[in-house]
């Protein structure tokens, strides 16, 4: 009902307009505003260029295709033979019987090696200092402070060079670990060192 | 087959040698590889204990062993050996060390002249494999402290007792046999005597 | 269920300190029931003893050894050396066999500490392992008893008798067992292997060896089904009225101790032979079976040939003191003394 009514009203309006136009025509030209008449040509649509887009802004690279599930899993977990990313418990750890630290089976204990390495460096430095740049013709014996030469035959000492360390022999650097350590170490210097390097 | 015996041409090293040498990636190619190894061998003879990556260490070890072995075999009056020492030892004072110190040290050795031990891995380094390369008989503290065998350990006590038991049983066996032997010999003697008498009679 | 009720009733009686000699307790428990009952009594008594500690006091335990010396503050009469080891590392827990208090007293790993002391752990590779070895041998004997009780069918009653002092140089650890229904049993090779398999199964359960000191009355009650043990108990408790019991899993036995920490510390082992012992019927038994075996601690690697020598030796009858043998026989006593001197 209502749309019909609107239609009728519309028709009536159209009719009124057409009658008025036929009777009076357009408003007279004199009443129009004075403007230059030369009409601009219609702007032709420009070809699309990437520069339009870039301009001041920026563009993100986005994946074109979805990654396969295999690829995604490989990226996540790695590959067992090459790089396996999840944490795996080590089963080859042992406890050092000297110091109680853990180390890998078949390798030196890190803690002991650090200690030994430091001592080795010191001895190496002393030896280099002692031997100098001349030809090396004698084997080296390292003595620590408070140690005297052990009794040996003279042939044993022939062609040996003694390098003295300016400190006491570390407790762990001894070859006769079989001996009990319950005995208190004596301070007297006439005791022979039980072993030499 | 007029082939010379290989063992007479070169001395046998007391270590495992890979069938193929390592290439030790280097810009200069094989020449650069040899340079690298010369440095390492020189360092080993000089310091007697060095830490290296396993590839370089193991490769240099073979050359060091060969060098010492040749020096022991031919002595310092052998021109090719001297040339070899001259080539491999970059510091010339070490040539003296090789012939005057290391040769006497290793003359009567029955094991390899060098020792290669795996060094501990540093934290978070999965792929570096370090080793410690050393000459035997060096004056430094031992890297591996061998636990001495204790006679009081239970397995040793058991084995000792078993040994004692076995000896006791053997001794008692022998003791028992001694008596028997004398009996046997005396009986055989009498038998012989009897035979003799019989012969005499016949 | 019935057993539990029975036991709780019994405990009540015990706590009331009434004379329970009037209690008629069945001597007809099957072996399995008897084991469970004993274990249950052990649990109750242990619980009671821990509750009796009351107000917790602290003691200072000074640990000496690797990785470094340190001081631990522990609970008096509750904390054991094993607890101290748990503060240190897994390696300490697994490898320690005995604890050494104040440098001279060997202490079980699972026995509560009573006062402040210094503490060292000893394993099989200690510098002076005699006590450790003895503890190991004693434990092996005790476990052999457990193995014997488990191995037989229900129709064969097993009455454990005793095991002598540990003598390692004799080559085998032993347990004398009374098998009343088997008058003349000579185990086949297969049967001996089965016994060994049972033994291995028991050891692989990796149970701790718990220690408990109980009064004579309770001890008698626990071993009510075993006439040999109940005869021995008054003798053992003569000095201070206490009997020292050890439990491994379900099995409870009398031993002077100390024993090792865990059955998992027993490594390679073999039950080698079962010999029949006969003698005068002084204790009312005419014959016993002597179970023999040989074992090594875990981690000891021995060549199969060397171990076969040990096994062959362990097959011979162990000359240790037989329960039948009294001091009248001077010759054999002399032999025993010799062996002891060597050990």
Automatic annotation (TrEMBL), chain A:
<dbReference type="GO" id="GO:0005762">
    <property type="term" value="C:mitochondrial large ribosomal subunit"/>
</dbReference>
<keyword id="KW-0687">Ribonucleoprotein</keyword>
<protein>
    <recommendedName>
        <fullName>Large ribosomal subunit protein bL32m</fullName>
    </recommendedName>
</protein>
<dbReference type="InterPro" id="IPR011332">
    <property type="entry name" value="Ribosomal_zn-bd"/>
</dbReference>
<dbReference type="GO" id="GO:0006412">
    <property type="term" value="P:translation"/>
</dbReference>
<keyword id="KW-0689">Ribosomal protein</keyword>
<feature type="region of interest" description="Disordered">
    <location>
        <begin position="174"/>
        <end position="197"/>
    </location>
</feature>
<dbReference type="InterPro" id="IPR051991">
    <property type="entry name" value="Mitoribosomal_protein_bL32"/>
</dbReference>
<keyword id="KW-0809">Transit peptide</keyword>
<comment type="function">
    <text>Component of the mitochondrial large ribosomal subunit (mt-LSU). The mitochondrial ribosome (mitoribosome) is a large ribonucleoprotein complex responsible for the synthesis of proteins inside mitochondria.</text>
</comment>
<dbReference type="GO" id="GO:0003735">
    <property type="term" value="F:structural constituent of ribosome"/>
</dbReference>
<comment type="similarity">
    <text>Belongs to the bacterial ribosomal protein bL32 family.</text>
</comment>
<keyword id="KW-0496">Mitochondrion</keyword>
<feature type="compositionally biased region" description="Polar residues">
    <location>
        <begin position="174"/>
        <end position="188"/>
    </location>
</feature>
From TrEMBL, chain B:
<keyword id="KW-0687">Ribonucleoprotein</keyword>
<dbReference type="GO" id="GO:0003735">
    <property type="term" value="F:structural constituent of ribosome"/>
</dbReference>
<protein>
    <recommendedName>
        <fullName>Large ribosomal subunit protein bL17m</fullName>
    </recommendedName>
</protein>
<dbReference type="InterPro" id="IPR036373">
    <property type="entry name" value="Ribosomal_bL17_sf"/>
</dbReference>
<dbReference type="GO" id="GO:0005762">
    <property type="term" value="C:mitochondrial large ribosomal subunit"/>
</dbReference>
<comment type="similarity">
    <text>Belongs to the bacterial ribosomal protein bL17 family.</text>
</comment>
<dbReference type="GO" id="GO:0006412">
    <property type="term" value="P:translation"/>
</dbReference>
<dbReference type="InterPro" id="IPR000456">
    <property type="entry name" value="Ribosomal_bL17"/>
</dbReference>
<dbReference type="Pfam" id="PF01196">
    <property type="entry name" value="Ribosomal_L17"/>
</dbReference>
<keyword id="KW-0689">Ribosomal protein</keyword>
Automatic annotation (TrEMBL), chain C:
<dbReference type="InterPro" id="IPR012675">
    <property type="entry name" value="Beta-grasp_dom_sf"/>
</dbReference>
<dbReference type="InterPro" id="IPR018163">
    <property type="entry name" value="Thr/Ala-tRNA-synth_IIc_edit"/>
</dbReference>
<dbReference type="InterPro" id="IPR050062">
    <property type="entry name" value="Pro-tRNA_synthetase"/>
</dbReference>
<dbReference type="GO" id="GO:0003723">
    <property type="term" value="F:RNA binding"/>
</dbReference>
<protein>
    <recommendedName>
        <fullName>39S ribosomal protein L39, mitochondrial</fullName>
    </recommendedName>
</protein>
<dbReference type="GO" id="GO:0005739">
    <property type="term" value="C:mitochondrion"/>
</dbReference>
<dbReference type="GO" id="GO:0000166">
    <property type="term" value="F:nucleotide binding"/>
</dbReference>
């Amino acid at each position: 009902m209502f749309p019909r009514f609107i239609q009728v009203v519309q028709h009536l309006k159209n009719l009124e307009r057409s009658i008025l136009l036929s009777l009076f025509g357009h408003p007279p030209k004199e009443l129009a505003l004075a403007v230059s008449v030369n009409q601009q040509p219609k702007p032709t649509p420009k070809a699309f260029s990437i520069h339009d887009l870039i301009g001041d802004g920026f563009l993100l690279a986005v994946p074109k295709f979805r990654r396969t599930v295999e690829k995604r899993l490989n990226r996540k977990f790695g590959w067992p033979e090459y790089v396996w990313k999840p944490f795996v418990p080590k089963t080859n750890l042992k406890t050092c019987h000297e110091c109680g630290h853990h180390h890998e089976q078949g390798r030196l204990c890190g803690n002991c090696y650090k200690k030994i390495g430091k001592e080795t460096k010191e001895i190496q430095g002393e030896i280099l200092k002692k031997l100098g740049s001349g030809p090396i013709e004698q084997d080296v014996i390292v003595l620590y402070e408070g140690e005297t030469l052990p009794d040996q035959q003279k042939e044993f000492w022939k062609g040996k060079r003694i390098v003295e360390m300016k400190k006491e022999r570390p407790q762990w650097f001894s070859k006769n670990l079989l001996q009990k350590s319950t005995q208190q170490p004596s301070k007297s210097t006439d005791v022979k060192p039980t072993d030499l390097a | 087959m007029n082939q010379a015996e290989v063992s007479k041409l070169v001395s046998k090293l007391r270590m495992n040698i890979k069938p193929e040498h390592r290439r030790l990636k280097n810009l200069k190619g094989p020449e650069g590889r040899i340079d690298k190894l010369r440095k390492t061998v020189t360092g080993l003879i000089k310091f007697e204990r060095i830490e290296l990556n396993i590839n370089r260490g193991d490769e240099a070890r073979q050359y060091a062993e060969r060098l010492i072995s040749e020096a022991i075999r031919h002595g310092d009056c052998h021109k090719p050996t001297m040339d070899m020492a001259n080539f491999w030892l970059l510091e010339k004072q070490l040539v003296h060390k090789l012939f005057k110190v290391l040769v006497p040290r290793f003359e009567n050795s029955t094991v390899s002249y060098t020792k290669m031990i795996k060094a501990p891995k540093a934290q978070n380094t999965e792929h570096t494999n370090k080793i410690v390369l050393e000459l035997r008989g060096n004056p430094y503290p031992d890297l591996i402290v061998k636990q001495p065998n204790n006679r009081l350990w239970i397995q040793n006590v058991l084995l000792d007792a078993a040994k004692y038991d076995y000896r006791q049983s053997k001794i008692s066996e022998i003791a028992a046999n001694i008596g028997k032997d004398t009996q046997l010999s005396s009986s055989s003697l009498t038998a012989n005597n009897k035979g003799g008498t019989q012969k005499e009679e016949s | 269920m019935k057993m539990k009720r029975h036991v709780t009733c019994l405990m009540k009686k015990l706590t009331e300190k009434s004379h329970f000699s009037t209690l008629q307790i069945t001597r007809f428990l099957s072996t399995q029931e008897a084991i469970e009952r004993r274990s249950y009594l052990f649990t109750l008594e242990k619980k009671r003893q821990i509750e009796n500690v009351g107000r917790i006091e602290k003691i200072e335990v000074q640990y000496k050894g690797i990785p470094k010396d340190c001081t631990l503050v522990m609970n008096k009469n509750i904390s054991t050396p094993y607890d101290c080891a748990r503060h240190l590392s897994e390696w300490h827990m697994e490898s320690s066999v005995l604890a050494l208090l104040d440098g001279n007293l060997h202490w079980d790993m699972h026995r509560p500490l009573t006062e402040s002391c210094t503490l060292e752990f000893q394993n099989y590779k200690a510098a002076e392992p005699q006590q450790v070895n003895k503890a190991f041998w004693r434990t092996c004997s005790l476990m052999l008893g457990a193995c014997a009780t488990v191995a037989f069918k229900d129709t064969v009653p097993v009455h454990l008798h005793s095991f002598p002092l540990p003598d390692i140089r004799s080559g085998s650890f032993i347990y004398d067992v009374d098998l009343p229904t088997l008058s003349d049993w000579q185990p086949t090779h297969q049967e001996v292997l089965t016994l060994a398999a049972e033994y291995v199964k028991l050891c692989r359960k990796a149970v701790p060896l718990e220690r408990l000191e109980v009064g004579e009355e309770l001890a008698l009650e626990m071993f009510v089904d075993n006439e040999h043990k109940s005869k021995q108990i008054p003798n053992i408790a003569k000095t201070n009225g206490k009997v020292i019991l050890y439990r491994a899993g379900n099995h409870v036995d009398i031993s002077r101790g100390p024993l090792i920490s865990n059955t998992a510390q027993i490594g390679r082992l073999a039950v080698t032979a079962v010999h029949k012992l006969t003698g005068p019927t002084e204790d009312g038994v005419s014959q016993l079976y002597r179970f023999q075996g040989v074992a090594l601690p875990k981690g000891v690697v021995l060549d199969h040939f060397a171990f076969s020598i040990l096994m062959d030796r362990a097959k011979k009858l162990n000359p240790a003191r037989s329960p039948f043998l009294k001091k009248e026989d001077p010759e054999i006593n002399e032999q025993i003394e010799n062996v002891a001197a060597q050990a």
